[in-house]
Design goal:
It contains 10 helices and no strands. By secondary structure, the protein is mainly α.
């Protein structure tokens, strides 16, 4: 199913999501690789098979194999890191923040694409997964690299809309 067909299949109560999805596909705040990779990473983070397939089908031919792999990697590594670092941030015991994570994160150092694009995708996935500590870290790196607040917001908006779409698809599948 194409992304457009999936968008059209959304029920009337999700009209705002349909409209937002259309506008985000062409949002000029991000370049094509940033935008398309963000869609891929956030669709995977949304954990809905139909959405993930539609997004990957839509954008896999528009991204290099390396960028597609890096977007998938951002979703995977943030899926792990967001849980771990949210735990260290939310638990009352400060001892955990001082302990080494002892988790392999090699892809962050060598994602196969521009590190800023990978940071942007990681930021959006961290927003989807609700990890404030990770969002602060990625936002700091993005701002130091000269990425505008508008671009960061655009990436997070993609994550927010795709999460909403995944929620609707899950609800409709349950019904």
């Amino acid at each position: 199913m194409s992304l457009e067909a999936l968008r059209e299949s959304l029920p009337d109560y999700a009209k705002d999501l349909k409209l937002n999805l259309s506008s985000l596909i062409t949002d000029a705040a991000l370049n094509d690789q940033q935008r398309f990779g963000c869609f891929v990473a956030c669709a995977i983070a949304g954990r809905n098979a139909r959405l993930t397939k539609a997004v990957i089908d839509e954008f896999s031919g528009k991204l290099s194999p390396e960028a597609l792999n890096a977007a998938k990697s951002a979703a995977a590594i943030m899926g792990m890191n967001n849980i771990y670092y949210r735990f260290t941030h939310l638990t009352g015991n400060q001892e955990y923040r001082q302990m080494p994570a002892k988790l392999r994160m090699n892809v962050i150092g060598n994602p196969g694409v521009d590190k800023i694009d990978f940071e942007l995708w990681s930021m959006a996935v961290s927003a989807v997964n609700g990890c404030g500590m990770c969002m602060d870290n990625h936002e700091e790196k993005l701002k130091k690299a000269g990425i505008s607040a508008e671009a960061i917001q655009a990436a997070v908006r993609i994550g927010a809309v795709l999460h909403g779409v995944a929620t609707v698809l899950d609800a409709e599948e349950a019904l």
